Amino acid sequence: MAEQRTTCAIVGGGPAGIVLGLVLARAGVDVTVLEKHGDFLRDFRGDTVHVSTMTLIDELGLWDRFAELPWKPIEQARVVLDAGPATVADLSRLPVRHPFIAMVPQWHLLDMLAAAAEEEPTFTLLRHAEVTDLRRRGGRVTGVRWRDRSGEVGDTEHDLAAYLVVACDGRSSRVRDLTGLPLRDYPVPMDVWWFRLPRGEGADPAGGLGRVTEGRFVIMLDRGDYYQVAYLIPRGADAEHRRQPIQTLRDDLRELHPWLGDRVDGVASWDDVKLLRVTLDRLRRWSAPGVLCLGDAAHAMSPVGGVGINLAVQDAVAAARLLAPVLAAAPADPAAVDRAAARVQRRRWWPTWATQTGQRIAHRGVIAAVLGESEQAPGRERLPLPLRLLQRVPALQVVPAYLVGVGVLPEHAPSWARRDAQPASAKNSSALPSGSTNDSAQP
User: CB of 273 within 8 A of CB of 194?
Assistant: First the structure.
């Protein structure tokens, strides 16, 4: 079994893992990201890049590269109830440089971020690297064991020693399971069907559009030539619904949005409808000696608001800022590393709790009501009071726009990780100034 060494081993090449690796590498930290797949070309469901993440991309000097990706801006979120339409959030009112949400295929975003990270001399991305176990010594995690799944020479086992292992491997985190950290689950009233429908030009609604009526809740996101559709169903009802002919779903869609017409036939069969089993949970402790969990590995988010990716990225930036000074020391002090890892949870617990609390309120007060689990369903005669207020005072639409687009506690790139905008071919590297922590990271 071959043994390798690194300072920080990051398990999972999603947005949190790649951003953490990029920012740490710009501090001169030796970092290795282990991604079990050979590429990022998968059907990601989280393709929303919010204001806070685009601000970070800008601060990292990567906006010119991001601008070259195929993305579609969403400036408004609207909903249609039986009582009529209403605008819920208007991001164009935000006083920021990028006042919108960008819908971008996540594999394009990850390719761009990974390419920038690989320009740093201390960054390594291992593909086809499936973590199978944790290395331990004296009650401390000291690295990972991983299997090379490239198939070139058959599966081979490797040891990777590290001062810190960071779990960024999602809501089904293998690393989190191996640590045994205590996890708290919250009940959710729904699962979600994901599928696409063709979008026409002209009169077709742009941006984000929700349709809410008794028993049905459908969200359509404008992706340019198609809509990404989220169709909410009661928790655990997928198998029962799939026993019905696919025409049942088409008829539902046409009833909710008559303007779709024959485009509902774009859902050819149930194979076109993917199920997302919604999870809402949070670790009570995010770290243990030698290991730290971030993003969905620490707190799986509901699809409400589409904020999961952006919370994970904010976690990564905060973690890099707090960890870089101790990881950059040679050799790193394990006790100092553990103290810094614990500080990450203290920094990020409040925005996580606040966001999940808002999602739980939405689950109970809106989604459960619509899907028939509550007697307090939205009335048919008039819009609910909060929506009426948003229509009467449109300036208030900036409040939900800020909460979703920017978030409770946005993180900013530390000064030592910032760059001027660079084209895709540019190469940069920089080390964290000795003794600098840059804990504030606020511009």
Answer: yes
Please give the average per-residue pLDDT across 166-180, as a whole number.
93
pLDDT band at 296 (very low <50, low <70, confident <90, very high): very high
Residue 441 CA to residue 206 CA, distance in Å, equals 36
Question: What is the rounded distance in angstroms from the CA atom of residue 126 to the CA atom of residue 132?
Answer: 14
- What φ, ψ does residue 224 adopt, rounded to 5°? 95, -90
CA angle 47, 50, 54 (to 5 degrees): 105
Max CA-CA distance within the chain?
69
Q: Are 182 and 284 contacting, i.e. CB atoms less than 8 angstroms apart?
A: yes
CA distance 64 to 180: 42
Dig out the tokens for 359 from the structure: 């999602």
What secondary structure letter does DSSP report for 262? G
8 A C-beta contact, residue 368 and residue 189? yes
Lowest-confidence pick of 149-158, 172-181, 305-314: 149-158
Between the alpha carbon of residue 228 and those of residues 103, 374, 394, the distances in Å are 10, 28, 27
pLDDT in tens, 239-250: 999 999 999 999
Across 234-254, b (16+ Cβ under 10 Å) vs e yields bbeebeebeeeebeebbeebb
Residues 221, 74: contact at Cβ < 8 Å?
A: yes
Q: What separation in angstroms does the CA of 72 have from each of 208, 215, 222?
A: 11, 30, 8
pLDDT band at 45 (very low <50, low <70, confident <90, very high): low
Q: Which residues contact 152 (CB under 8 A, 6 or more apart)?
A: none
Task: Tally the C-alpha atoms within 13 A of residue 18's C-alpha that lie toward its C-beta.
Answer: 24
One-character DSSP codes across 127-173:
SSEEEEEEEEETTEEEEEEEEE-S-SSS-EEEEEE-SEEEE-S-TT-
Domains of the chain: 2-42+106-181+282-358 (3.50.50.60), 190-234+236-276 (3.30.70)
31 close to 123: Cβ distance less than 8 angstroms = yes
Strand partners, 194: 230, 274
Query: Sorting pLDDT into bands at 50, 70 and 90, what band is 317?
Result: very high
Mean of pLDDT values over 284-311: 93
| CA pair distance 288, 261, nearest whole angstrom | 55
